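During the reporting period the student researcher (J.K.) took over the structure-prediction task from the postdoctoral fellow and processed the backlog of single-chain submissions. One of the processed entries is reproduced below for the supervisory committee.
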Amino acid sequence: GGAFADVSAVIRHAWTNRSTLLAESQSVRRALEDSSLPAWLVTKVLNERFVANTNTILDRQGRFSVNEAPTGMSQCLGTLDQRTCSGGYWTMFYPSLDAVELEMFTHCQGPNGAPAHDLGNGEFNLTPRPFPWPDLAAAYVIQVHRHFLRTGDRGFLERHWPFVKSALEWAIGLDETGDAIPTLKPGRGTTYDNQQWDGISAFLATLHEAGLTLGADIAGRMGEAALATSWSHLAAQAAASRQKHLWVEAGGYLRNAFDPATGKADEGVFLSALAGDWAILAGGGDVHLDKALLHRAMESIIRKCLLGRGMTDQGGKNNTQSAFMQYPMAYFAGAALLLGRDDLAWTFMFFQDQVIICPPSTHFNQTLTYNPDGTAYGLPYYMTAPASWLCVDALAGVVPDVDRRRLTLGTSWLWGHSPQKTPVFLTTGWFSVESRREATGVTLTLTPIRSFSPFPVQTLAVRLGETLTVSEALVNGWPVAVRSAAGTVELPVDFDPGRQAATVKIMP
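J.K. obtained the following structure tokens:
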């Protein structure tokens, strides 16, 4: 039993309510088209929702999952690692389904704390099935943290907290060289299973740093201050090790990998070497490494990993046969936007889209991997295509924290041209944010589009950049107290962005 007795009842409902259903189905498109986003990006993100039609399952028991690649992955369900950035779409628009799928992963976590890779093949297998990829622990933490920030659901966080704790402690225990980063070796890999590194990899180092950072935030919210301090200390130590072992000052890049046990280095440049930096910033934190260093690292990625017609996961190496094309929409472009390099983000996003739409590849039939010449290779209809939606988030620099009634906005793209306008899609409601930069200051206009649940914002944090100073601010024409630090201005407010308009003027 459900809302409809049979298929004919569904058809009758659809026909009777066709006008309303059409208008509702077009609401996302209208919000995107009423913005400053280029037409190609609007088309891209709209089309890359195809996964909802081709890959999803919702059974009679209410269990929801996303098939990794329907024609080539043995009907693998869930896929926790790919979910790290593709799951942002489900959190954004279908939070209840997002919670259902994440809940099932708690049943599959191993007794040692190691998360499962998936939820079964073809049918749900909700039994403990630990998988030896330490990046899965960080992936799980990032996803739990994201869902909680956007929903403020304390019950959800309390249910997941024991599993977050055991997953992180398992990953922490895999450090065999004392660098606060899990040690990779044969039999212990990562989501990049077409490659094998030994020791410390650029990808795992950054993602583990993010898992510890966001895990510390969760621990603090759960009242475990000592554990939050311990994990924060380990995150800082991991960042220091990442810089010590992977940063190459002479070339201005982060190398693929380094094995402290042997001293052997892999001098390639990895496409997703800033995955954890993205996750930390998208989760409301701040990166540990110097931003100027990260800017240089991103410039090296553009130089080394973007080729004539395609790209590679490992720039500067000839033995890399393919690139995982969807991940870096968040792990590179999202990071670049949140780190103030929208120029690099736009370069990458447009280049990636040109590869994706080169026949026979299309937005609607993306594979996991693409050859360096841009041709598609393996696993069509891949689940991670909606990662592009996290770029829409990153353009506005939006970080909602419903639990703490805090909303963060602002990126270099938002201030780069005047006026600039983009929609923001939260689980609580949708609104548009428009910026105007003038000699007298910056004005933000927030206009509600629709509301689903309350989000009473009491603190509006506006990222203006490291060099800007602020003397006063007006909210809806009234002066408010200004508190600023590290390029972010915090303003006391009282409004719900999904329900109420707000005008914020910030003056130097």
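The committee noted the following: The chain has a mean pLDDT of 95.
J.K. will present the remaining backlog at the next meeting.
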